[in-house]
Amino acid sequence: MNFAFTEEQEELRKGARSFLENYSASEQVRALMETDTGYDPDIWGRIGAELGWPSLIVPEEYGGSGFTYVELIAVMEEMGRALLCAPFFSSVCLAGNALLVAGTEDQKQEHLPGIASGETIATLAYTEQNGRWDADGVTATAKKDGSDYVLNGTKTYVIDGHTADLLVVAARAEGTAAADGVSLFVVDAGSAGIERRKLNTMDMTRKQAEVKLSDVRVPAANLMGNEGEAWDSMVKVLDLAAVALAAEQVGGAQKCLDMSVEYAKVRVQFGRPIGSFQAIKHKCADMLLEVESARSASYYAGWAAAEDNEELPVVAPLAKAYCSDTYFHCAAENIQIHGGIGFTWEHDCHLYFKRAKSTEIYLGDATYHRELLAQRIGL
Question: In this structure, are strands 268-269 and 272-273 parallel, antiparallel, or unpaired?
Answer without folding.
Answer: antiparallel
